[in-house]
Amino acid sequence: MKAFVRVSPLLLLLLAAFSSTNLFAQDWVHTGTNMGNQRIRLAAADFKPVGNDPQTTPLKAIFDSTLFNDLSSAGIFDMVSKSLAPQAMPGSPQELVVTQWSTPPSSAAMVAYGALSANNGRLVVYGWLNDANAAGSPPVLSEQYNEAASQDMARTVAHRFADDIIKRLGGGINGIAETRIYFVSNRTGAKEIWVMDYDGANQHPVTHLGTISMSPRISPDNSRLAFSSLGSAGWAIRMYSLELGRMVSFTAGGAGGSNLSPAWSADG
What DSSP line would sit under 49-65, residue for residue? Predict the structure, then answer.
C-alpha cells in the first residue's frame, strides 16, 4: 500500500521563502582585501629628465621602475599600464595636461609625475600628484628630494615618494616601501646579518664578523641592530649602529640571562 504525504500550499510557500532567504544571505559572505573600497585608478608617468649629466638617464630608469612597482604593490590602486599611459613626461604642474590622462585608454583618476636630475653628485627629484578630473586645480601632493646621486638612493627616493602618495591617498596609512628586512645569510662563507629592501632588492651584508651571527632585532627608533654572535668567549649579544654604520659597544648585563635571542623593550 503506498503512502501519500499531503503538503499544504502554505508550507511550500514558507519553504520557498526560506530557501530564497538563504540564497540571498550567502551573497553577503565575501573575502578579500580592500573590501568595500573602490580602488583609485592611478597613473605614474615616467619622470622628465633634466640636464645633461650622464648619471641622469640610468638613475631615472631605476626611479621610474621602482616607483611604479611600489605603487602597484600597495594594493589600493588600480594602476594604469605603461602601455596605456600617454607618452608625455610632464616635469611640472604647468606641463601637465590632465585630459591626456583622464580620458581613455588611461582613464586615470590621479596622476603621479615629476622631474629628475643628477648634477655634481646630487640627485634632485621633484614629484607631484594631481587629480586628473580637476583641471586647473593645485597638486594634491608636492614633494622635493635632494640626496647623493647613486642607484641605491634613486631607489630610496622612489620608495619615499611612493610612501608619500600611499599615505595621502590611503587615508593616512603609512606605506611600507621604505621598510627593510634583516636576515641571516651564509653566502659569504659565514653566517652574517644581511639587509634588503621590502621588495627583495638591494641585498647586502651588515656585519662582517666571520662567525655565526643570528636573531637580528631592530630598535623601536630604527637606529640600532641587536643580534647574537658566537665569539671566543661563547655567545654574546652585540650591537650595530645603523646611524654610524659600525659596531658599537654593548654590555648585556644580568646573570643567568640568555645571549641567544635579543629583544627590545617598547621604549627602546
Answer: EES--TTHHHHHHHHHH
Long-range contacts at 190-193 (CB < 8 A, ≥ 24 apart): 193/225, 193/227, 193/240
The reply to whether CATH 3.30.950.30 applies to domain 40-169 is: no
Is residue 268 classed exposed, middle or buried when 0-12, 13-18 and 19+ CB atoms within 10 A define those classes? exposed
The Cα–Cα gap between 266 and 47 comes to 41
Is pTM beyond 0.85 here?
Answer: no
Q: Where are the domains of the chain?
A: 40-169, 180-248
pLDDT, one tens digit for every residue, the chain (268 residues): 444 444 444 444 444 443 444 433 433 333 344 555 689 999 999 999 999 999 999 999 999 999 999 999 999 999 999 999 999 999 999 999 999 999 999 999 999 999 999 999 999 999 999 999 998 899 999 999 999 999 999 999 999 999 999 999 998 888 888 889 999 999 999 999 999 999 998 899 999 999 999 999 999 999 999 999 998 888 889 999 999 999 998 766 555 566 788 889 988 7
